[in-house]
Specification:
Blueprint: H1 5-19, E1 27-28, H2 46-54, E2 60-63, H3 75-85, E3 90-93, E4 123-126, H4 136-152, H5 179-199
Helix pairs in contact: 1-2, 4-5
């Protein structure tokens, strides 16, 4: 019936979206959802080009970055993905996901995400550790990163571009996101939360 997998998926997704009354949030996860799955690259992938052309523009597309679990996200990559999909992607961030190896738990701060990404995103989902309590630091530091991004976008230039202060993790500029500072703040709040819970009946 369909000449390609991409056309089939886009057709079904469009029909479901319309049947549901065109909801304000409707997410589509493509078969090629990161750069390493694209052949030969995101911008030259026939699959992604078809998805970008055929999928209704109101439908959001999920993207995980260069890899399934991406250590870094850059504005340049997101710009390339936006061009081929003809929409800003929603990042499905697997930085902390440990469902593929439950012997490990990831407790470090949210890091490896370049400043100024927010204008390139339609949204961001954080895939957490499977262990509920272990997600305090990931979610807390994600909040610090998000607030930093909001501050950098508070006064965009005429083109709508956000300007984030840049700096290293060891020597961040004022107003920029520092993973180390975010981690220290998260640890402070986590200890306070643990102490509060121990004082509760049955804690």
């Amino acid at each position: 019936v369909f000449p390609s997998l991409a056309k089939a998926q886009a057709s079904v997704a469009n029909e479901v979206y319309q049947e549901l009354g065109q909801p304000s949030i409707f997410l589509f996860c493509p078969t090629e959802y990161c750069s390493s799955l694209c052949s030969p690259s995101p911008s030259q992938s026939c699959y992604l080009l078809t998805i970008g052309q055929e999928l209704l523009p109101e439908i959001s597309v999920i993207w995980t970055g260069p890899k399934v679990v991406s250590q870094e996200l850059s504005a340049e990559l997101l710009e390339e993905v936006e061009g081929v999909l003809q929409r800003r992607p929603i990042i499905w961030d697997n930085l902390y996901a440990n469902d593929y190896d439950c012997r490990r738990v990831f407790l470090g701060p949210y890091t490896g995400r370049a400043p100024g990404l927010m204008p390139r995103l339609c949204g961001l989902l954080l895939n957490p550790n499977c262990e509920l309590q272990a997600n305090f630091i990931p979610i807390h530091t994600l909040g610090s990163w998000f607030r930093s991004e909001l501050r950098s976008c508070a006064h965009p230039d005429r083109t709508g571009t956000c300007h984030s202060a840049t700096g290293s993790s060891e020597h961040p500029q004022e107003g920029s996101y520092s993973p180390q500072e975010a981690l220290e703040l998260a640890l402070h709040d986590w200890v306070a939360e643990i102490q509060r819970q121990t004082l509760e009946p049955g804690g």
